[in-house]
Design goal:
heterodimer; A: 119 residues; mainly beta; 4-stranded antiparallel sheet; B: 111 residues; 6-stranded mixed sheet; 5-stranded antiparallel sheet
Chain lengths: 119, 111
């Protein structure tokens, strides 16, 4: 079974430029997550999709970050304009479903991440 | 707001040593706790999952315990090997399958 795919793996841009990341989840996974991991910290959830609808984007800096998941499969995360503090690894994960029933658990499978450096 | 803390931040041990990694969380209303491993340039790999009703889980040389009431978990690694060198992250799951991660422990096992 193919895992979560992400591209590009590395990206270097100058501040105020724009950048986009792509994620292809595991086939059949309804829920897709984007995380930001700053060096020395744990991953922080940016946005969660259930199919092509947004479930949670409370920690997404909406003035510069946007994400979409067309047709409920692939997803793109965009930053425009980028700031120095956006330098981080952007991780994509997917799970079969994202239920909140007590005791229910859906394993999140992570991609390799995209390492962004903003100069 | 859930906060997850891991200590130590970094650890270096000789091969063969048994070691313990610690994780604490502020809100005990969790569904489960998960330990992940992260290798440089790679994504996260799930190691162990403990449901909120469980006390511990074991997989090979790894044993994870959970004390939900005190907001603590430990990951025990027996007979450490150089291949165990990685960053270990714990994450607690709240509603909506939302994971809150700790800051990680960077482990180096030396020959």
């Amino acid at each position: 079974e193919a895992g979560v795919a992400q591209s590009p793996r590395y990206k270097i841009i100058e501040k105020r430029q724009s950048v986009a990341f792509w994620c292809n989840p595991i086939s059949g996974h309804a829920t897709l997550y984007w995380y930001q991991q700053i060096l020395g910290q744990g991953p922080k959830l940016l946005i969660q999709f259930q199919n092509n609808g947004v479930v949670d984007d409370s920690q997404l800096p909406k003035d510069r970050f946007s994400a979409e998941r067309l047709k409920g499969v692939d997803s793109t995360l965009k930053i425009q304009p980028a700031k120095l503090e956006d330098s981080a690894v952007y991780l994509c994960a997917s799970s079969l479903v994202g239920g909140s029933v007590a005791g229910d658990f859906e394993t999140q499978y992570f991609g390799p991440g995209t390492r962004l450096l903003v100069l | 707001k859930q906060e997850v803390t891991q200590i130590p931040a970094a650890l270096s041990v000789p091969e063969g040593e048994n070691l313990v990694l610690n994780c604490s969380f502020t809100d005990s209303a969790i569904y489960n706790l998960q330990w992940f491993r992260q290798d440089p340039g790679k994504g996260l790999t799930s190691l162990l999952l403990i449901q909120s009703s469980q006390r511990e889980q074991t997989s090979g040389r790894l044993n994870a315990s959970l004390d939900k009431s005190s907001g603590r978990s430990t990951l025990y690694i027996a007979a450490s090997q150089p291949g165990d060198s990685a960053t270990y992250l714990c994450a607690v799951r709240g509603g909506g399958n939302k994971l809150t991660f700790g800051t990680g422990t960077q482990l180096k096992v030396e020959l």
